[in-house]
Amino acid sequence: MEARDGTSSQGATGAAVPKADLGDCRFYEERFPDVEDLVMVKVNRIADLGAYVSLLEYNNMEGMILMSELSKRRFRSVNKLIRVGRHEVVMVLRVDPKKGYIDLSKRRVSPEDIVKCEEKFSKSKKVHQTVRHAAQKHGMKVDDLNRSVIWPLYRKYGHALDALKEAAMRPDEVFAGLEVDEEVRKSLIQDIQLRLAPQALKLRARVDVWCFGKQGIDAVKAALQAGQEVGDDEVTINIKLIAPPQYVVVTSCYDKELGMRKIEQAMKAISDKIKSFSGGDFKQQGEIVVMGGDEEKRLEELLEEANEDDSSDDEEEEEDEGMGRVEDDIPEDEVEDDEEDNDDGNA
């Protein structure tokens, strides 16, 4: 679990280093997390006392989540809460650097905590992948590159990813005072630019559309068609059926603000059209949200899960001692997944 010898492996030729020889691959300067830190883990195995996991940000150190720290609610089957191979956000309860014991908790993590940790992990993983790629390319150990470049950037900028973004525009300023070869510096910047290339955003809004008048389904179809016609070559509007009278208005674009305006215009067109029919009405369900793993979608799913948990909370606190790791299942019945797969549901 300790870092390997930090001596540089870079030779005169800068020959690439095999992945297995890259050395200590923790994400942060600290070798162990602090108590109450939120960390991302991978579940390796489930035993009687709890679940054993690897701390992905700390060189895959082993830790443990006790059964009593899995969930606030009572459960009969642990397999309904955790699954081997899945990733989970947990809170650090105890750390023993000498023995290497790390005790963790799933039950003490809030939905907001999960979103925050997942965002941090995503950023840190991009940095780590960039560093590994540069280290392998230039015949270095990851720990050498971390100590000479990445740890100082974390200290100065709060997060090394923010620093590398800045470096793409002002490399001399960002790397000032750091002992880094020019070619290595170029590799870091080029790699992070590729990882940060803009990706299309998917936005959606859920709506209820119905008509109890003579026109009935024909009125609903006309209203949904009016909404789709708001789209253009730049931003298309798709409308899919969830279950009558529920529909989802979806668009995909690079500009979030433009996409939100288009969805708002589409909903207004639907509302105006359906209300022009006798017995027709429209209702928006919730806010416009970003799909595809963004914070708004993730927080919504987790808050729904938390609300279910609150109805059956077990308030008894158990102070068990042990060492292990656990991982809960991330909710799988996501509305968006169903919506994207249900192409037959187009209005």
Automatic annotation (TrEMBL):
Functions in the early steps of protein synthesis by forming a ternary complex with GTP and initiator tRNA. May regulate protein translation in response to amino acid starvation. May regulate protein at various stages of parasite development. It is found in: Cytoplasm, Stress granule. Keywords: Cytoplasm, Initiation factor, Phosphoprotein, Protein biosynthesis, RNA-binding, Translation regulation. This is Eukaryotic translation initiation factor 2 subunit 1. It holds the Pfam family S1. One of its GO terms (molecular function) is ribosome binding. It comes from Toxoplasma gondii. Signal peptide: none annotated. The keyword RNA-binding applies. Residues 36-107 form the S1 motif domain. InterPro entries: NA-bd_OB-fold, S1_domain, S1_IF2_alpha, TIF2_asu_C, TIF2_asu_middle_sf, TIF_2_asu.
